[in-house]
Amino acid sequence: MESSKVIHAFYNDDEVLLDAVHTVKAEHHHIEEVFCPFPVHGLDKAMGLAPTKLAITAFFYGITGLSVAIWMTNYMMIEDWPQDIGGKPSFSWMENMPAFVPIMFELTVFFAAHLMVITFYMRSRIWPFKEAENPDPRTTDDHFLMEIPVNNNEEELTDLLAKTGAVEINVVEKH
Amino acid sequence: MSHYEAPIREPLVLGDKSYHDITEDIAKPIEGKANKHWYIAFAISLAAMLWGFGCIFYTVGTGIGVWGLSKNIGWAWDITNFVWWVGIGHAGTLISAVLLLFRQKWRMAINRSAEAMTIFAVFQAGLFPIIHMGRPWNAFWVLPIPNQFGSLWVNFNSPLLWDVFAISTYLSVSLVFWWTGLLPDFAMIRDRAVKPFQKKIYALLSFGWSGRAKDWQRFEEVSLVLAGLATPLVLSVHTIVSMDFATSINPGWHSTIFPPYFVAGAIFSGFAMVQTLLGIMRKVTNMEDYITRLHVEYMNIVIILTGGIVAVAYATEFFIAWYTGSPYENYTYLSVGAATGPYAWAFYSLLFFNILTPQFLWIKKIRRSFIWSFIISIFINIGMWFERFDIIAIVLSKGHLPSTWWRFEPTFVDVGIFIGTIGFFFVLFLLYARTFPVIAQAEVKTILKSSGEFYKKRREQGIPSKPAINTVVTEPVVAVNDNEDKINVLFDKLGKFDPNTQTADDLKKISGVGPKLEGVLNGIGLFTFEQVSKMTKEEYDLLDSITGSFPGRAERDNWAEQAKNLLNG
């Protein structure tokens, strides 16, 4: 990387921002990042972000939870210490299965929910004591910030961004 | 754009709000000081909580004998409280999960507090079975872990163990759902915080949330999937709680309609508690523009619906108990025996509080009245407590064998622990209301343009929600100093700033003014809100011609109006 200069263009409206992203993309500039105070629908598509696969991971975590529940009920109630509770002996897992449905359901949800959230935190790099990385405090209030790397085209980019309705344009050194 | 909502729908956010106004409104109770009422309420709650803790220590130190239980009535007051608190917890997840799946946007103003209520209520609920164990230090025996008794495992056939799994899953999933939604709002508080200690705390709580586009994409997907998981979860919790009763062989308990009827009852009582809490909170934290009559009305409609389900269930229970002709069924909690026996007062309380009072909500005036909704919600809270008390105490007081008949009388310890949990609940809720963003502000911002009063009005006048863009290429931000004349004209009108007698205001508080623009404004002599508040179209144009930066901005954002508000508030 020869240059680590980036342009920070501020917008104060979600619709203006979305149009600006379309314009900048149409001009074939790379958008490094957009920081938003709230989710803007269609922004990920406009930026060309790939769809997230978290829902798919949740499905597999759920399957894991279900398997754990089946293994656990079978091992504890049928294999390790089968008991005759209230005249209902533990002969085989299939015969006792209706009584295990609540446990199977709860563990499916438990695994799917928690492991998905942990995956989200890890992938988005958010956890306790993590330092925030938004470049300007206004981006959690009412401003949207578009970050574009500069490759000797500062003038051109500034002109373009000003036309898209940016309310503030800063050129900063990125460390 | 998707910012369209039929004009016939009432706005969900009142007042002429901008995105920044929402930030200000939500941050205010956290950044401001608590008033006297808060301290009084907190002191009372804390006293009640400590009294309850005293009763818990007394119970654990002496034994369960200090309660009003006997060998015939082994469950009564404590399990009533347990089911009552779990039921209250249901509305939070219902609002945040089920209403999310149904795309009900009115949930956004109330989901944060409803979820907080859920979590705090489930804490209280969890206390009762643990205390009832008598030796709470052995509570971990309910977990399926290898132990000192060979490999004696927990009994997975038992609804009581299903309860352990259901409630701990429910509590923990609700907690991460709540916290994930809180991250962007904690980040907002963090980025506004002035005091270093506050900044540190909110930086820690926000987990370093930065709000990247990818983060938001994942955030929305996670919210949706969690809602999908939490919806069947919340239905399962009270279903399983009802199975504690329904799988037994007691008349009045072994009822197949218990699961759906308990779930409806839980939502009924949960919404009543949300109504109670928000009725107070919207006043105390000045959230009247966000928690509106419309929200109250929608919640009351849910209350009428679930209350109706509960009423039909009661009627069914009463009819079936009579129709069987079985003498054992004649002392279930909804029967002629109960209506004429020693617990008749509890029987009629149930009907009065739970069936009769909610019917007033059919009247639109009452349904949209804050004070009536509040009163009715308190009645329902009491009624739903009686429902559980009747199911448990009345049924157990007359079992199959006349020699086991007994009358349950609570002791001061029973009552004390209950009061203690109410105190504990309010201690947590009051602390929450002072330190957490009580409204999911990031979410509310997404509906501002579609459902906000300001934008709805503008749309009627044919003004698009998207502000006009000024395509004039902006010059580098430097104040033009050769405009002496213009500056003089401008400040003749606005008044000159005298650093000796006046103090400069933080112009950044005006929405649209950043540190850079503030520098420019200060550069030409604009320092105070008072000066800004005097600006009109003429001055805006003059200012634009002097600075040459961001033309039209001041007018578009209506600085004068903003400055006036800042001066007043």
Q: Can you give me a brief rundown of this structure?
A:
The complex is a heterodimer of chains A (175) and B (569). Chain A is rod-shaped, with a radius of gyration of 26 Å. Chain A has helices spanning 14-26, 43-47, 54-80, 93-123, 154-163, and strands at residues 5-11, 33-35, 84-85, 88-89, 144-149, 168-173.
How would you explain this protein's 3D organization?
The complex is a heterodimer of chains A (175) and B (569). By secondary structure, chain A is α+β, with helices and mostly antiparallel strands. Chain A has five helices and six strands, in the order E-H-E-H-H-E-E-H-E-H-E. A four-stranded antiparallel β-sheet of chain A has the order 2-5-1-6. A two-stranded antiparallel sheet of chain A has the order 3-4. The mean pLDDT of chain A is 90. Chain B is mainly alpha-helical. In chain B, helix 8 (258-284) runs antiparallel to helix 9 (293-324) and helix 8 (258-284) runs antiparallel to helix 13. The longest helix of chain B is centred in the first third of the chain and has 34 residues, at 159-192. Chain B is elongated and about 105 Å long. Residues 473-481 of chain B have low confidence and may be disordered. Classes of the chains: A alpha+beta (175), B mainly alpha (569). At the A-B interface, helix 1, strand 2, helix 2, helix 3 and helix 4 of A face helix 1, helix 5, helix 7 and helix 15 of B.
